[in-house]
Amino acid sequence: MAGCSALEEAASPSPAGDGKPPASALASAGAGGGRAAGAATTLPGVPGEQQARRELAGLRVAAQGSMAGYSRARFPHWVEQGESCNTRERVLERDGANVRRDEECRAVSGRWVSVYDDEAFTDASDLDIDHTVPLANAWRSGAADWTQERRRAFANDLARPQLLAVSAASNRSKGDQGPEAWQPPARTCWCPYARSWTTVKAAYDLTVTEAERDMLTEMLDTCTP
Questions:
Q1: 29 has a pLDDT exceeding 90
Q2: What are the strands of the beta sheet with 107-114, ordered from one edge?
């Protein structure tokens, strides 16, 4: 699956953890829109395999918590990110090629490849912005106890591999499931997906279940040396 190169950047997240995009994520976008056609899409903050294994070993194992009190409104998302752009538009710009936006920062043209199913799109309305660790999963693994501000930062985190433009169909197939229940259909995506998932959970001190940890280990075992 060619699109899995989108998950492969190995870089450290911003130590500030403020949810702002790293300079490299937007440097080539400019005022007119996105990257040149064919440019590689990468996510910020994807760790290497060994770092991901260390982070996974450090995660606390616990049963999933209750969904009591959960709603997506508890995670304010697609917030303002400057230049009249919200988080969704920033991700569309970062993940697309030749993205052009209007004066309200809406993506009006471009080309995107959904890494989960390798489908190509030219209409931004066909894309969802996936939270690598879904909001409901985060709620069950520790976010229920967070402040609203921390949940806001989590839902709009552009400094880590937490947000990705994918097909609406693949995002809805995944839902709020963890890796123990849903994996990218192509095994070639398992390694970078597990690295991304693990580092997000580690950054936010979220728990994992035994089944989740075991599946993440299996997915990391697909990484090539």
A1: no
A2: 97-101, 107-114, 119-121
Contacts (Cβ under 8 Å, ≥6 apart) of 207:
59, 60, 61, 62, 141, 142, 201
pTM of this structure: 0.86
pLDDT, one tens digit per residue, over 43-64 is 899 999 999 999 999 999 999 9
pLDDT tens digit sequence for 165-197: 999 999 999 999 999 999 998 888 999 999 999
* Angle (nearest 5°) at CA 134 between 133 and 139: 100
Farthest CA pair distance, the chain: 48
Give residue limits of the domains in the chain: 2-9+41-220
Whether residue 91 contacts residue 165, with contact meaning beta carbons closer than 8 Å, is answered with yes
Cα–Cα distance for residue pair 188/212, rounded to 1 Å: 19
The residues near 90 (Cβ < 8 Å, ≥ 6 apart) are: 21, 25, 26, 81, 158
